[in-house]
Amino acid sequence: MAGNTNRYSSYTTASVGSGSDGKNGEKAEKKDLWSSMLDGVASAKRLPEKNIILLGGTVDSQREFFESLSNNELRRTLDRNASRMPPVANSFALGYTYYDVLDADQEDTLARISLYTLTNPSPSFASLLKPLLTPQTIPNTLIVILLDWSQPWKWMRQLREWILLLRTVLISLSHECMAAMEEVMLSWRDRGRGGGTNLDGTTALPVADDGVALPPGPGEWEDALGIPLCVVAQNAEKMEYLEKTQSWKEEEFDVVLQFMRTVLLRHGASLIYTTPSLPSQLPSLIHSSLGIHSLLKKQPLKHNVIDRDKIVVPPNWDSWGKIRVLREGFDVERVSNAWTADLDQPFPHPQSNGNTSNGEPNGESGEAVHDQEEEDDEEPQGSTVRLYELSVQDPTMDALQLAGRDTHSTELEVKSEDTQAFLGKQLKQLETFKKQHDETFGQDFGSSRNKPFKKIEEDEGALDPYTRPTEAKVLEHIGPVQFNMGGIQVDADDMVQRLKDRQAYGTSEPGSPTDEVGAEANAQMDTENLQAFFQGLMNRKSGTGK
């Protein structure tokens, strides 16, 4: 029986199959390894993205704010950074620009910040801000409101307009965004209280033995927006101008600071004064608020409420007690509670100033006093805006009110009145004057002006019926009149009196026949007098001779 004597070894097949599978496995493992390494490198090089929503100010002031954050003395010396400065597009509606935050050695990039700018608190722009706030961007967003020391009397009104606009946007967000904002506010509220980490990244000192964070004090975090807020008061060098030209004193500057600190304390916001020509803690405050900290050099954020032009009030530092210490007599509780009435106002405000960010009033500037009074009347009783504007008054409004409500000294253009309306008013005034004139002098006065002058009665007390009362009043007003005639100073009143005397005694005009007869008679009378005088002298001599 012949059988199949061919044997097949299963080792070769198995060994070959197992070898190919091993190579594929090794390739797959190597591929996964490289992918993970590339992903790790990519994630390490990916810059943290932060957002700043910049509200208020003007186009130029927003550029100054951007330059103060993105530029410093070291960075300006680096050509590569100067050549890569992005443009600032903030001329229309919602503007945008960005910059990279460099480390202390100016080599490593810590984060990239995107700035979204808006200059006008118009309700029409609320739809532009809403897409910027998502559950992913809210934890990395900071809101900055710009104010200017050129018009500090408008700060409270401007601040209210911007916060009302923000509240309109925030209450319309989704539930996911609401949850993100609540989480952000909880972390901010506990930052620096009872241990943990301060805003600048340093370790906070424990204030309680059990390590429990202290609760907020009165007036703190009462109206949290859900997003961190920072208020920047630019051009602090103009405080000296207010002191010299408007007679501001330390009391006025302290009142402004107390109002601002009291209101911002309710929102958990920070406050800083800046001067373009002087270094400040503005970059440290803004970057720390966004969670950006240097890896090489720690820059602690220090509060400052002593130097009036370098004020820095970090979040979670202020309190009612510290505000009262600044100047006595300030009712911090009343101002804080009154801010709630301001936030309950409808938006937009019926008597809003329009573009409050740049200080331009809405409508004709000649009606500034009237509009301001209407706005004060529309403010709720006990409003913080009303209290602030009573304490910090606009000097231009004071000048206009003293000059009168119809004074338009600040106008560049004057609105002309209708011609027919103007003539109608003038006609009424002329008729009134004519009626008063007729009642005073009689209706026949006008017709008597053309009649010739008659001889005045010899009685000096008689009244000349043709004497013009108006001319007499004019002569009394301007006083005596003199004129020069042939080098001789002649008084007008004396000349008139002589003419009247000549008319009274019937003296004719020079050159007439009666005038010649009178001259001969006068000459004859003078000769007789001289003859009598000399005859008297001769008689005296003869008498003495005897």
UniProtKB/TrEMBL annotation:
Region (Disordered): 1-28, 341-383, 502-524
Subcellular location: Cytoplasm, Cytoskeleton
Domain of life: Eukaryota
InterPro entries the record matches: Dynein1_light_intermed_chain, Dynein_light_int_chain
Keyword rRNA-binding attributed: no
Main subcellular location of this protein, as a coarse class: cytoplasm
Polar residues: bias regions: 1-18, 350-360
Keyword Cytoplasm appears in the UniProt entry: yes
Keywords: ATP-binding, Cytoplasm, Cytoskeleton, Dynein, Microtubule, Motor protein, Nucleotide-binding, Transport
Name this polypeptide is given: Dynein light intermediate chain
Organism: Podospora pseudopauciseta
